[in-house]
Records
---
Amino acid sequence: MDSFDFMDFDSGSQNAEMHYQNGPYLPEASDCMRCGVCLNSCPTYQLTQDEQEGPRQRVQSLRQLIQHQETLDSQKVEHLQNCIQCRACEAVCPSQMAYADYFERAQQQLTERSFSTWGKWGLQLVARKKLRRILLPWMKVYQSTKWQSWLRKSGLFDGLGLARAENYLSEPESTYLHSEYTVQDAQGSVALFTGCLAEAFDRKTLEDAIKLINACGYNVIVSDSQQCCGAMHYHNGDVATAKDLMQQNIDAFARLPYEAVVYCATGCGSQLTEYSRLMPESEKAGDVVAKVMEVSRFLNQHWPDDLTPKAVNSEVWLHHPCSQRNVLKNQQDTLHLLQRIGGQRVQELPENHLCCGAGGSYMLTHPEQADALRDRKLAHLTDQPQAILLSANYGCALHLTKGKHSSPPKIMHPVSYLSQCLFSE
Ligand code: SF4
Ligand code: SF4
């Protein structure tokens, strides 16, 4: 017999009615039918086959917290904290449960977060551009000298609980992007959203996106006033910092003369497109959201007829980040863009409905689960030596790169691959 306890539906209809009177109807947690459709898409359930690690039980715990104002025992809190917030359950739920919304409302009450003091410092670094700019050159010095291997061997990072985070660091770019990249007889201008870490750690993707947008006849503006999208802070319960960052972005982009705000990382995009919902108090949030666009969609809309890229690898594999599949739902744009490449075969990575384990900061806070999910994903490419795996989210690409694989795939953003096909000799 299923160990899951069936719950009553009484207070749910009352709450649903209250919600309806105050705005669009959102199903309440008590509207969960317990059909189990979500279990197949839930990565933590798939890993453990444990009902407590699945959406049905989490929805019930969220209901206890939000509707009944009850205190959860530590085990239930841990099961909630193990949630990757991938929103796969929300995407397939026939009741259209607003899982992310419940989780965000409950998160304010989940005081015991799994974030360490170092993790909180890391969030501060992500939020402060000036501080990052002071520290990044030192990080580059550290990585290009013997200091890195000495400190790694010393065990200091292990002792401080920083070994995993340090292992994820790649050598940062110490220069900044220009404020604009112009073309002759431009058809218009777009603003490029760079995010908090991409300018330093994923520069190639941004530079390739700029080259392709320029090739479509558009100028690219890089506002120095933009900040981190706020996703990391929001999902870790630091709503005040998240709102401050979101408002700075709204101010930065609202004053620019642009046709679109183009982003490359779908994790950032999923946050940017939700600014109206997350910042109802901001008058200009809607104006900015209306112009936010994923880079593939922009390129598809403006691609010149005489631009014909040629495949540099006859076959590539496409990974769907959860932010793209479950929130933005624009994975077809990426596929369509890649189909512009002559002679290109694009294969969907099997189990694309399951999260790779990156989950923003999840890969740092939940190493065991994150690694198990990543290795399960990469196992699909075991028989594919020299495979090229494309992912439209920097966090996923970073996590996938750290996988143990006898013949690791080359992982890159779809625009970098397209750029290589278009511009390489
Ligand atoms: S799919 Fe939706 S309604 Fe069905 S069990 Fe999951 S959360 Fe509940
Ligand atoms: S958000 Fe993802 S990990 Fe969390 S319950 Fe839903 S499917 Fe499972």
Note: The CA atoms of residues 89 and 406 lie 33 Å apart.
---
Amino acid sequence: MTSTQSTAPADLRVGVIGVGQMGADHVTRISTRTKGARVSVVTDYLRDKAEEVPGQVPGCRVVDSPEELIAAEDVDAVLIASPGRFHKDQTIACIEHGKPVLCEKPLAMNPEDAYAVVQAEQASGKALVSLGFMRRFDAGYADLKDAITSGELGQISIVNCKHRNAHTLPGFVDSMMVYDSAVHEIDAIHYFLEEPISAVQAVLPTPGPRADEGQHDPMLLLFRTASGIIVTDELYVNTASGYEVRTEVVGSAGIATIGQDSGRVTTHLDGGRWGGSIPEDFRPRFVDAYDREVQAWVSAIADGTMIAERSATAWDGYLAAAACEAAEQALTTTGFVEVTTAERP
Ligand SMILES: NC(=O)c1ccc[n+]([C@@H]2O[C@H](COP(=O)([O-])OP(=O)(O)OC[C@H]3O[C@@H](n4cnc5c(N)ncnc54)[C@H](O)[C@@H]3O)[C@@H](O)[C@H]2O)c1
């Protein structure tokens, strides 16, 4: 009798830090829809929350702290989904342990801290940091990016973005519209155009009737890139409707639009109307993008490239932090605010 040995590579053992809304979603994604990976260890500031995971993911264990998780023998790679203020230190700890990390956005809360991560990665000599700007993996985004890169749209002059939410929680102030909403368009600008944002201006109309006290909703941000492309970003976070993200790229050879998908269109026989539906929030809208992002991360680690081709890097996180800081200043400044960035190490 001959013995048979499995030649299949062992699954990547992923440790997940923070199992709130995003972290729990990623645990489910890795456990049910990602090839070549499993969740081996979780941790959360709220221990009870973490203790729920092994019930759903057999073989997964809970540890007390992010530091213990990052150092654990049975963690090959780390997914950080804790609040943004912890990302810098947790990402640097992953770099110090030589472990690939997918950090949810933001990389850090300010450009200086984001730059510290860039420098730590550079000093380690290994590219280890992927940043969770998942829109890069959305099929529409990837298609639009390829149309821009191939030259199909010609020379790009203007990009028009729209980012709308049904509701936000009370206290979602103007700066959060920059750091939590516009940050996605800011990264999209870097992804699509492959050049940094050089200046940003806020244009604040009279607030709509659903805006919180002191909140400017809707608002418009204008970005100018290094080569002079203008990007408009309409942010409207209390539409009372649903989640919509649209992008239109205006070029010399073509004008391309994504995000207008209507899905199923129904003619309603009870009152002279037809139409589709709008997703409630970002999770159904971008579920495929999150799935592709995490699969691409796992596959890149398996093939040794470590960072997937379309993924945002630590440098993208730094550029986003610098642009957000300028956009926040622009909220209370007349005219354009310059974005200052350090040299890429
Ligand atoms: N890419 C996206 O589209 C997207 C969408 C939503 C959230 N996010 C990002 O994901 C991150 C998490 O957001 P969320 O909505 O899941 O928040 P959340 O509050 O639902 O979850 C955060 C979890 O982290 C835990 N936690 C707090 N401090 C911790 C620490 N020091 N170490 C470990 N765990 C800690 C909390 O107890 C909580 O369970 C944020 O950075 C957010 O910006 C990204």
Note: The pocket of nicotinamide-adenine-dinucleotide is lined by residues 17-23, 43-46, 49, 66, 81-84, 86, 104-105, 132, 134, 282 (CB under 6 Å).
